[in-house]
């Protein structure tokens, strides 16, 4: 019986006297309907090499093993390693790696596992490190084609939000700079063991071959984005002036906003990624012309 059957999950947990670690964000999936939605969103074929983050007791790994060509499953909790050896004993195309995914050399793994090709990342992510994991996968220009993950619902909504909505923020812009997000499913709390106290969602990020906008100084763009949302109730000009990461004068900011055709009192939450990019280049130009 596959592990996605709650009875089978309970049997494995009992066999190994397993105690869930809150610290590692352990909420194991026990709903086949949700598992199928994740697999569908990931669009796997036998040509694909999958990196699974946090296999737990191997529930999703069993299904990934059937759908993909090869699976690398990286798990931080050493107590789960002997369990995975047992539950995945029939899965010849799965390699379990005992590591913190934030420390794993993903580029080297991809180079060895599928030279010249890209990995597909699939995971039911531990919620305490969702954003660092996703931002690492996006920012380090790793050979990753898509990231299909279960995350806390609020985080999924923030990743795919657009200007003028309450969920829109620095995370929306950071993710959308690198990837095209698509919300694949909402997932209620009772699909996990133990039950978390938040709802979840499955989101697929299709990594762009090139960032969504081209700017002269990407670092400046991200500083502007952070400053633009750090004080949501204030104007963008105030946010930029108060940012410890930036040192533009009031005049430079006013002039750059004007160059871009934005009202002096515009708020960060009203600007699209393209508009932040225009402002970034305009501010860069102010400095050059000074
Ligand atoms: N994939 C399993 C499932 O769906 O039932 C387990 C998902 S559970 C939400 C998250 C898993 O990630 C746990 O097994 C946890 O031990 C593991 N984990 C937590 N932090 C990790 C990290 N930094 N690197 C690798 N695995 C991690």
Q: Any overview of this molecule?
A:
This protein is an alpha/beta fold and 290 residues long. The protein has two domains: 6-207, 3-Layer(aba) Sandwich (Rossmann fold); 218-289, Helicase, Ruva Protein, domain 3. Helices cover 42% and strands 18% of the residues. It has helices at residues 6-15, 32-42, 59-67, 80-87, 106-113, 130-139, 153-160, 170-178, 218-230, 236-242, 250-260, 273-289, and strands spanning 28-29, 49-53, 70-75, 94-98, 119-124, 144-152, 179-187, 192-193, 200-207. Strands 4-3-2-5-6-9-7 form a seven-stranded mixed β-sheet, with helices on both faces. Strands 1-8 form a two-stranded antiparallel sheet. The longest helix is centred in the last third of the chain and has 17 residues, at 273-289. The protein is elongated. 40% of the residues are buried. The model has no long low-confidence stretch (mean pLDDT 96). Bound molecules: S-adenosylmethionine (SAM).
């Amino acid at each position: 019986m596959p592990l996605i059957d709650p009875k089978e999950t309970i049997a494995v947990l009992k066999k190994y006297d397993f105690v869930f670690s809150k610290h590692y964000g352990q909420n194991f999936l026990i709903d086949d309907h949700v598992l199928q939605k994740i697999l569908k969103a990931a669009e796997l074929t036998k040509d694909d090499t999958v990196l699974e983050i946090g296999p737990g007791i191997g529930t999703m790994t069993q299904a990934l093993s059937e759908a993909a060509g090869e699976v690398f499953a990286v798990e931080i909790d050493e107590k789960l390693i002997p369990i995975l050896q047992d539950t995945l004993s029939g899965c010849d195309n799965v390699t379990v790696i005992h590591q913190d995914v934030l420390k794993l050399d993903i580029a080297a793994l991809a180079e060895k596992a599928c030279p010249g090709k890209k990995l597909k990342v699939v995971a039911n992510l531990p919620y305490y490190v969702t954003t660092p994991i996703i931002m690492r996968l996006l920012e380090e220009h790793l050979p990753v084609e898509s990231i299909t993950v279960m995350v806390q619902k609020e985080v999924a909504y923030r990743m795919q939000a657009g200007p003028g909505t309450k969920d829109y923020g620095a995370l929306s812009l950071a993710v959308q700079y690198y990837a095209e997000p698509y919300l694949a499913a909402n997932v209620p709390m009772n699909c996990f063991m133990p039950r978390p106290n938040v709802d979840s969602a499955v989101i697929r990020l299709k990594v762009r071959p090139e960032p969504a906008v081209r700017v002269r100084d990407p670092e400046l763009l991200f500083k502007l984005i952070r400053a633009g949302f750090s004080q949501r109730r204030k104007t963008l000009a105030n946010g930029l002036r108060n940012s410890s990461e930036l040192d533009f004068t009031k005049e430079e900011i006013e002039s750059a906003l004007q160059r871009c055709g934005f009202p002096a009192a515009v708020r960060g939450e009203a600007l699209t990624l393209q508009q932040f990019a225009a402002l970034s280049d305009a501010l860069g130009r102010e400095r050059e012309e000074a």
